[in-house]
Amino acid sequence: MPQLSTEQARAYWRRNLALMAKLLVIWFAVSFGCGILFVEQLNQIQLGGYKLGFWFAQQGSIYVFVLLIFYYSRRMAALDREFGVDEE
Predict the structure, then answer these.
(1) CB of 87 within 8 A of CB of 78?
(2) With the C-alpha atoms ordered 63, 36, 53, 28, is the resulting torsion angle positive or negative?
(3) CA angle at 16 for the pair 13 and 17, rounded to the nearest 5°
(4) Cβ contacts of residue 39 below 8 Å, gap of 6+?
(5) What pTM was computed for the model?
């Protein structure tokens, strides 16, 4: 694996942390916001016979979390290729 300069390594980790922060904000908004804060408004909508607020609290936030994991994996693979530290 090629060595990065100190400046390149900092840029790599800065972009990695920025991506993680954005994804954590999305996860928080979905799990806390949709499952707790906006549950009454979302419960006005039905999804598969269940109230949408209940669905987000029980299933939706988990699905979003799994999608965020796949998105993070793809974005980090692209970032690794960009900085030349991919494993291929």
Answers:
(1) no
(2) negative
(3) 85
(4) 53, 54, 56, 57
(5) 0.81
pLDDT tens across 45-61, in order? 887 888 888 887 888 88
Give the dihedral of Cα atoms 43, 46, 49, 51; nearest 10 deg.
Answer: -10
Contact 80, 86 (CB under 8 A): yes
Q: Which amino acid is at 59?
A: Q
Burial label for 61, CB within 10 Å (0-12, 13-18, 19+), is buried
Q: For residue 11, what are the contacts with CB-CB under 8 A and spacing of at least 6?
A: 83
